[in-house]
Amino acid sequence: MHWNSVGEFFAMGGYALYVWGSFGACALLLVAEPFLVRRRLNEVRRNLARERLAEALDHNMDHISR
Amino acid sequence: MTNMNLINWFRFASPQSFYPLAGKLVPLFWTLALLFGAAGLWVSFFVAPTDAQQGEGYRIIFVHVPASWMSMIIYLAMAFWAGLGLALNTRLSSMMAQALAPTGALMAALSLWTGAFWGKPMWGAWWVWDARLTSELILFFLYVGFIALQSAIDDPRRADKAGAILALIGVVNVPIIYFSVKWWNTLHQGSTINLTRAPSMAHTMLWGMLLMALAFWMYSIAVSLMRLRAIMLERERHTEWVKHALE
Q: Distance between CA B180 and CA B166 in Å, rounded?
């Protein structure tokens, strides 16, 4: 290992802005994307479940009114 | 025997059988992505030596090269699936292309972003209109164009066809990006890895880069499969299998 201290690690030999700006952007987007995709998948599932419930209710109402 | 294999593979070519399979594959690819990512980051920061010319600044390579590779690989995969969907009229392949596009756009954006953060300290400029950079920017616009075109057309089958044509035309850009550093006199450095000669970098640097590339690759598969599942449910919502899949 070639870092003598934590401070030296974060300083990245004077390139802190560039190294952490690159790794930070990657970390941010690679965490945000799966989060958004998961939300989309859950939303689709919820909507489909709601549609099916509505269909079932319609069906029951038809029976009652008859 | 070969016949059997063929039949088994075609069985997964329909959304209803691929949906549960994708659900099983997603956690597997997430695990691989995390393992490769942890190993890759360890090598990137604690094993790979300081570069003689660029000091610690060169460490950007460990995210820049994987993001750039993935932006090109995903484009080829997207064009392949879109083309297959156009030729064979298979629903699943067009959905695959649609699922890959946003992740490809993200990789192209990361390639440009990390490239800017590398260019600034080494060349003194965030951006130059250099062949490599410009062709990568065009790749990003191709992804955005594909997504925009598909979402602008209401009928999904027509959207698939229009998107496929755009994706296939855009394929010419991929070799242009790849060979741009050879064909034109550019500011961008030459390829880090060359098929014909031994890599010109320290072995640990090379290993760090390959591990990170694998991590990005597994990540791309995992997140695209998740998106593919959402697309399958959205587009096949009125079919019987979707009703059963949610039970």
A: 22
| Three state DSSP letters for B93-129 | HHHHHHHHHHHHHHHHHHHHHHHHHHHHHHHCCCCCC
The pLDDT tens digits for B93-123 are 999 999 999 999 999 999 999 999 999 999 9
Q: Which residues of B touch A49 (CB under 8 A)?
A: 246
The alpha-carbon gap from B222 to the nearest alpha carbon of chain A, in Å, equals 9
The pTM score is 0.91
**Which CATH number is B21-245 given?**
1.20.120
- The complex scores an ipTM of 0.89
Residue A10 inside a domain? The answer is: no
**8 Å CB contact of B63 and A18:** no
User: What's the pLDDT tens digit per position in B18-56?
Assistant: 999 999 999 999 999 999 999 999 999 999 999 888 999
